[in-house]
User: Which sequence fits this backbone?
């Protein structure tokens, strides 16, 4: 049985980020895009830092990226992750030019290096939330 | 589309030597305490105020730690202050304490306040731990929504990718991190008021438990209970006060680009200190070679060598080599964290670093005194890469 949502650190979407989380629920990685100048930005925010427009659009990302940096955590710091240790947390450069920090599955820690090609996967975690995570590119996505 | 940006003129030079550290105070640093976090801050503050030769009622400005448990009202009610004229916070995590010196200097220089108290204290060991504390920081709103749900919860997990990338790009090694841990421990043992008092070797460091790769247990600062405080007074007043004044020659804060999360900074290996340090040195009118002693924010070993690079003591990527061979020890090239730092003395968010710099420049460093220390610096590092620095002289 899943622990209660309060014990699982589920994201709490805001007015600025809700479309991002809604897309993930449909297993789509959507990125906030300036409706005026087209600059892609992440994490979601109300103002385009390139042209200061507040007109927002969302575009679906390729889901492909490469490892920028990473850590392998051997301590959970929260009960929700104790049974998943060690956790690989990867900072990923997406093809669209923005970065995310997500769990990286399906790779041995010693095989990780800067530039490792990865692709997004989706983990349904209940409460109507889906988290993005990454896997080495070319590895079949697990069903969920 | 490029927008025009007019960089403001460098008017901060007017803050040079307008204020002094006139009092410092600390509680005992422990793991476990039966005192409230407010009481710990009051105890350290009373010690700092007494050191300055002042009455608690003389305090007319206070800069409470931004996410601490005591607010300005606590100091008014505990000290019976009749007319507190200045209260702000510097919400920059571990960069707050040194950034608060800039705010205090500005307030004193503008004539708003005469004696500004900078208190810090907490039960970091026996109260909420770092992972729980940072989640409450307003700066962690984005991390809380987008990174913590993946399992990146504690600072050690959020900072490790900075160190890992530095290692991958520049060949920095865990043994070089160990040099920082070992030297800092030696200093804590000399200090006497420190949580960690057992000598360690590089091999001990290498055998210590991996927490979040590349950070081992001995790369991490020590959660502890206690309080530390300083009093900042106008330079004119300071000349007639109880203790030899320690002049603030230059002070600045700096924020990295795109700091919503560490992972979003364009270059993970560069901190806001890289922007702040040149401004502080320009204000002070001194150079790197003039620095006799340094108190460098050391939440993790890596943070020290990264800041050494960002201040320009060596080029980016050379920090690992810089810290080898006892360079940070007494008698080394840059005696650093002579009190034992956050790594071994106590995690007081760097207020203990400010206290120690003042002690060194007064010649009160006891067994860890850097001979003839005239000029020194203290830095702060805040969670998303915020930086702060103060350069002081005796």
Assistant:
């Amino acid at each position: 049985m899943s622990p209660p949502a309060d014990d699982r650190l589920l994201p709490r979407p805001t007015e600025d980020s809700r479309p991002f989380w809604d897309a993930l629920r449909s297993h789509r990685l959507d990125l906030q895009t300036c409706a005026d100048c087209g600059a892609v930005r992440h994490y979601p925010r109300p103002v385009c830092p390139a042209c200061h427009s507040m007109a927002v659009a969302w575009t679906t990302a390729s889901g492909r990226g490469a490892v920028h940096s990473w850590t392998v955590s051997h301590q959970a710091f929260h009960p929700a992750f104790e049974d998943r240790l060690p956790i690989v947390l990867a900072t990923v450069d997406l093809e669209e030019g923005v970065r995310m920090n997500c769990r990286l599955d399906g790779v041995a820690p010693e095989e990780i290096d800067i530039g490792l090609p990865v692709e997004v996967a989706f983990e349904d975690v209940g409460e109507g939330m889906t988290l993005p995570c990454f896997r080495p590119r070319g590895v079949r996505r697990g069903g969920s | 589309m490029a927008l025009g940006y007019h960089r403001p003129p460098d008017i901060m030079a007017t803050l040079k030597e307008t204020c002094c550290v006139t009092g410092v105070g600390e509680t005992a640093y422990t793991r476990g305490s039966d005192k409230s976090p407010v009481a710990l801050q009051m105890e350290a503050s009373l010690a700092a105020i007494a050191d300055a030769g002042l009455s608690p009622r003389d305090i007319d400005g206070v800069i409470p730690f931004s996410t601490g448990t005591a607010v300005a009202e606590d100091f008014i009610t505990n000290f019976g202050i009749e007319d507190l004229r200045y209260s702000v916070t510097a919400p920059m995590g571990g960069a707050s304490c040194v950034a608060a010196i800039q705010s205090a200097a500005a307030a004193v220089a503008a004539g708003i306040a005469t004696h500004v108290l900078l208190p810090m204290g907490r039960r970091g060991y026996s109260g909420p731990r770092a992972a729980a504390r940072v989640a409450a920081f307003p700066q962690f709103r984005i991390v809380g929504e987008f990174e913590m749900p993946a399992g990146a919860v504690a600072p050690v997990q959020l900072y490790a990718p900075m160190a890992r990338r530095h290692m991958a790009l520049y060949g920095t090694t865990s043994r070089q991190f160990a040099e920082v841990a070992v030297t800092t421990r030696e200093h804590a043992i000399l200090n006497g008021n420190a949580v960690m008092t057992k000598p360690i070797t590089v091999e001990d460091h290498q055998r210590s438990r991996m927490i979040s790769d590349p950070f081992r247990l001995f790369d991490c600062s020590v959660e502890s209970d206690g309080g530390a405080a300083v009093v900042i007074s106008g330079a004119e007043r300071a000349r007639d006060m109880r203790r030899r004044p320690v002049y603030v020659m230059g002070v600045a804060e700096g924020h990295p680009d795109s700091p919503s999360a560490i992972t979003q900074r364009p270059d993970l290996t560069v901190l806001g200190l890289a922007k702040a340090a040149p401004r502080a040195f320009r204000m002070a009118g001194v150079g790197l070679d003039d620095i006799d002693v340094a108190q460098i924010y050391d939440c993790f070993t890596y943070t020290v060598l990264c800041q050494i690079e960002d201040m320009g003591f060596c080029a980016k990527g050379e920090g690992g080599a810089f810290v080898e061979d006892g360079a940070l020890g007494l008698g080394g090239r840059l005696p650093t964290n002579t009190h034992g730092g956050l790594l071994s003395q106590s995690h007081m968010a760097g207020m203990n670093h400010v206290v120690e710099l003042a002690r060194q420049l007064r010649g009160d460093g006891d067994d860890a005194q850097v001979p003839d220390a005239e000029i020194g610096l203290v830095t702060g590092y805040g969670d998303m890469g915020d930086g702060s620095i103060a350069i002081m002289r005796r």
Q: What stands out?
A: Residues 14-60 of chain A form one domain.
